[in-house]
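We modelled the chain as a single entity of 336 amino acids. Its sequence is:
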Amino acid sequence: MAFIQLRNIGKTYALGGIETQVLQEVTLEIGRGEFVALMGSSGSGKTTLMNVLGCLDRPSCGRYMLDGRDVTAMSPQDRAFLRNQKLGFVFQTFNLLPRTSVLDNVLMPLAYSPSSGSRPEARSRAESLLRRVGLGSHLHHQPSQLSGGQQQRVAIARALINEPALLLADEPTGNLDSRTTEEVLKIFQELNREGVTILLVTHDEAVASHAGRIVRIRDGIVEPEGPPRSRAGAAAPADAPVPRPHSTGGGHPFLSSLLGMRRMLQTALTGLLRNTMRAALTTLGIVIGVAAVITMMEIGRGSSSSIQKTIAGMGANNLLILPGAAASGGASHGSG
């Protein structure tokens, strides 16, 4: 069975009462360990197709099978879990956290993974990936201190931290010069030879030529493919090894939950320490708000107590008003 199977996938968007069909009965198969380039012009539907494959969007019709699982029948929570465990993303604009170190950017996906192992194991894996992409000496740099090519390498390391079976790259070389583009594509080829299935979205023929297979899409329709191309080092062999899963940190659900909670708390604390002024101002605002609410409640309580004392001082604790006629000096003045 193919690693990825699409059967009559369609996607329609409704904008202002007008329906626009972006994908039309797309049928496609991708084997495990393939390096596939998805080519198309702007507006052809290639990014929408990548979003469907990456479980970021749901097709309007058709069936999507990923590693034997029916993605179209999954709930949003199940698709999110699948993205975390099996998929890695590399974007054109890097999408790195600006005030976070290179190492912490790579570690970030593990904060949402229930099977990420201990902190030392995760850190060791992140450092190993950064050394692999040539950034072993930039662990504590911030993204603003890196070049565009270096930032894209950080993004690749981040995409690999969960050891995904499928790597999705959306125009990963669009903001890079030609020399850096070749370096990034070489990294993709090395990963593919190790068994990672790669889908590279691009409009550049020269970039697509590094893949072992090119799929073209036009007006939401996948065009018929020609015979397979041969390019040295571009595609993994048919019996490419399956990436091995990383340590699960013991495998017990309770322990995994504790590790995940601990990592989320560490991430939150790191964020607070990194943005001290913003955290201080937010805390001050909360304190002022709570104090204002307590003050208003106490003022209201004090006013109520004062009114009750005034009424008691008049010699009556209760004021009773009954319907009837008003009278003065023995003369009735009608109903009161």
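As a brief sanity check on the tokenised model: The domain at 4-273 is CATH 3.40.50.300 (Rossmann fold). Confidence is low (pLDDT under 50) at residues 231-251.
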